[in-house]
Structure formats: structure tokens, C-alpha cells
Amino acid sequence: MSTDAATSTNNSKASARTKSAAGEYLTFVLGTEEYGLEILKVQEIRGYDAVTQIANTPDFIKGVVNLRGKIVPIVDLRIKFHLGKVEYDEFTVVIILNLSGRVVGIVVDGVSDVMALQDDQIRDVPSLVTSIDTKYIVGLATVEQQMLILVDIEQLMSSDDMALLDSAIH
């Protein structure tokens, strides 16, 4: 396959991925950046409460909470993404996600809005744009003057790091 054909194939794969990204996204803040994740993955949004810590887990796994009888692991995305100083205040929230029947909470600095994004608002991610691994990013969306990093939360939560969650709570 020629280089041009390979580039064309890769571009069409990236375009197909981005094209299917249109939909409604819950937007949230981590540090100074705004992120979005598919609204259909969100079960509920709660204020940050104390968690029960689990021994021998990475720093980004804050612990677990009992959510109506179900043990839910809590992951601080600010720590996971190496976003510097992490403070817990009245704006810190936990987004409870339902990912293929698996319930996980993520700690974020704040929740902003629910936005409906169209195909023409979503772009591919240039390499080395963010401090997080781009394989977890669906694309970049522009809404007015605001840039959103769209995260494939299911891909992120099923990574090798997240396997530690399963072993820690089972």
C-alpha cells in the first residue's frame, strides 16, 4: 500500500470515528480545561463525600462509597490526568457512571452543562495536544469560543489501570 493510500485510510478511519461522535455530552471541568463525556453514560451527579480508602491502590483511586447498597469505586480524574494540585471544595463533584453495567464514580472540579454536539463541531485530536493519552479522546469540539476535550470514558475506564479497581474491590 502506498504512503498516500495509507494516509487516506487512516484519515477516513479518524473521520469515521469523529463523525459518529455527535450527540449529547455532559461537560465538566478538570483544572483549567473543559471536558465532555456521553450523557448516556451518566447515572447521577453527587457532591463529593468521604470515601473508604482501599490499601495498595494507585493514588488516583480515592476509594469506594456505598451507593444505595452497591460498592462504587471512585477515581479522581485530576490525579489520573496529572493536573497538578488537587483540592476538594464545595464545587468538587462525583459523576456516577454506568459503563456496560459497571458503576464507577469520577471526581471532577465541577460540572458545567449538557451540550448537543453536531458532526461539524467535532474535530480529530492532533497528536501531543493534551497531557492525557489521546487514545481516550474522541475528539475536540468547539462551541462558540470554547474548546471541549471529548473523552471516551468507557475506553478510559476499561484500561489496564482500571483493572486495578476490580482487583481492589473484589
From TrEMBL:
GO terms for cellular component: cytosol. Residues 22-162 form the CheW-like domain. Transmembrane segments: none annotated. This is Chemotaxis protein CheW. The lineage of its organism: unclassified sequences, metagenomes, ecological metagenomes. Gene3D superfamilies: CheA-289, Domain 4 (2.40.50.180), SH3 Domains (2.30.30.40). It is found in: Cytoplasm. GO terms for biological process: chemotaxis; signal transduction. It holds the Pfam family CheW. InterPro entries: CheW (IPR039315), CheW-like_dom_sf (IPR036061), CheW-lke_dom (IPR002545). PROSITE patterns: CHEW (PS50851). Keywords: Chemotaxis, Cytoplasm.
